[in-house]
Amino acid sequence: MNYITNDNLEVADKEVFDIVEAELKRQTNHLEMIASENFTSPAVMQAMGSVFTNKYAEGYPYKRYYGGCEFADQVEQLAIDRACKIFGCSYANVQPHSGSQANGAVYAALLKAGDKILGMDLSHGGHLTHGSKPSFSGQNYSAFYYGVELDGRINYDKVEEIAKIVMPKIIVCGASAYAREIDFKRFREIADAVGAILFADIAHIAGLVAAGEHMSPFPYAHVVTTTTHKTLRGPRGGMIMTNDEE
């Protein structure tokens, strides 16, 4: 097989092309009801298959280790500016490859091994990276949990009671399966009461936040992460956002 070619995928590698076509058919003929399996637009897929796949751009915009990054700088800065405008924050990092990676970066920056975190119990709708035992977040840090009541809602007074007992370094608000609005303002009050950092993971509701249909985590959360796919319907990736320069 000649890999140095200008041919399209069907000509260059028919086996892979057929698998891609089969997956397209599967996605087209099935209705996915979870945010992480959203069907992105052809424009997004076109951008993801661009010449930027050939370019190393290690570092940050205008502070790279490789030469020839002027256009990579432009497109990354555009993403940063758009994220800040959409979510109403001052700073954004758009380099994480996933929401889990973004969450890991937040923990690595703000915590030491063994520090306490308080997040939603996985069985109550939380996420693996919010302190679940199988996850790095539950193994590297001392994780404690809050949950939902029988009506499926968070009892914020109970969260505050737990926080005052645990005294966590970080309180994580956000979920992967919670059908109600998250009260970021109330979470910030709880965090302030115990001197904790409020970390909001809005991966599953980012599209609703961007559209103004859900309360924004800003200005309440100290740091916010999200994915770029799911309800935003972009490519798979993650973002870290904050109003704090440090």
Strand order of the largest sheet: 3-9-8-7-6-4-5
For the record, what CATH class of the largest domain applies?
Alpha Beta
- Give the number of domains: 2
Q: Give the CA-based shape.
A: globular
In CATH, the homologous superfamily of the largest domain goes by the name Type I PLP-dependent aspartate aminotransferase-like (Major domain)
Which CATH architecture of the largest domain?
3-Layer(aba) Sandwich
- H/I helix tally: 9
Helices and strands, in order, run as: HHHEEHEHEHEHEHEHEE
Question: How would you describe this protein?
Answer:
This protein is of the alpha/beta class. It has two domains: 30 residues, no CATH class; 155 residues, 3-Layer(aba) Sandwich (Aspartate Aminotransferase, domain 2), CATH 3.40.640.10. Helix content is 36%, strand content 15%. It has nine helices and nine strands. Strands 3-9-8-7-6-4-5 form a seven-stranded mixed β-sheet, sandwiched between helices. Helix 7 packs parallel to helix 8. It is globular and about 65 Å long.
Question: Helices, strands, pairings?
Answer:
Layout: H1 9-12, H2 14-29, H3 42-48, E1 59-60, E2 63-64, H4 70-87, E3 91-93, H5 99-110, E4 116-120, H6 136-139, E5 142-146, H7 156-166, E6 170-173, H8 184-194, E7 197-201, H9 206-210, E8 223-227, E9 238-242
Parallel strand pairs: 4-5, 4-6, 6-7, 7-8
Antiparallel strand pairs: 1-2, 3-9, 8-9
Helix pairs in contact: 7-8
